[in-house]
Amino acid sequence: MNRSTLLLGSQKPKFTLQTIIPSLEVYNLYFIPSFYVLCFMPSFYLCSEYDCKQILNIFAVQICLTWFFLLQITEWGRMSLCDAERRLLANALLDISNERFILVSESCIPLFNFTVIYDYLVKSKYSYMGAFDDKGPFGRGRYNPSMQPEVNIEDWRKGSQWFEVNRKLAVAIVEDTKFYPKFEQFCRPACYVDEHYFPTLLTIRTPNLLANRTITWVDWSRGGPHPATFGKADITEEFLTRIRQGHNCEYNNQPSSVCFLFARKFAPNTLDPLLKFAPKILEL
């Protein structure tokens, strides 16, 4: 099997493997031995050789390139988050066999087994990044006219931080020097650059390659600036079945009910019930 899907993690700095990836054992069920993966480690952690080997052993990976990431301190809503994501992509691109790149957080879980997700992505004509023209105060209202002429308000887009891109789009993100200075200087809180930089960049560069939706499910029904976090009591068969099914979207320009491949945010105490239901509900 080709190494065509690479999972990348990105979150604020913590200090142990368990807190970096509390759902690690769920992913242990997800990966298969013939799937080669780079360290599931944010680029802004200092990844020691021991830590990388421990992660690789947990994932039962047979062969892997070990990367040593430099420390990258990040701050929510600042360009440092995009810097960390670009460095993750840059390191992943060094392996020419990597073709699809997924950014997930440590609170994400897979909703389907590896084969389903692999086939879904490698057969897709598009990459999965939301890039919406939000004309309200939290969309176009964050635009700064000083970003002209490189970025016009008609091109301004908003999307989720969690995305999937193919190799061509990953290269476009990493090599950008034209738009980066404008976002770094003129998109600062209350303009949250991680919600706007990549969606706007790819809308300008490669709009025909975007599905304009995310593959990571979240629940915004409780209100507030962040999606709901689910705890142990929330994890039931009915809940997991509901977030896997009952959606409507397009896949390769055809109607589909499979719209989300991952879900968040799951607290560390959800691990035991997730492991209980994963073989039956998630088919892991």
Automatic annotation (TrEMBL):
Compartments where found = Membrane
- Listed transmembrane segments: 27-48, 55-73
Bilayer topology reads:
Single-pass type II membrane protein
InterPro entries found in the cross-reference section: BC10-like (IPR044174), Glyco_trans_14 (IPR003406)
Sorted alphabetically, which Pfam families does this protein's record hold? Branch
Alphabetized, the UniProt keywords read: Glycoprotein, Glycosyltransferase, Membrane, Transferase, Transmembrane, Transmembrane helix
Q: Which domain of life is it from?
A: Eukaryota
UniProt GO MF annotations: glycosyltransferase activity
**A GO cellular component annotation in the UniProt record:** membrane
Q: What is this protein called?
A: Core-2/I-branching beta-1,6-N-acetylglucosaminyltransferase family protein
Species, as recorded: Papaver nudicaule (Iceland poppy)
Please spell out the taxonomic lineage of the organism that makes this protein. Answer: Eukaryota, Viridiplantae, Streptophyta, Embryophyta, Tracheophyta
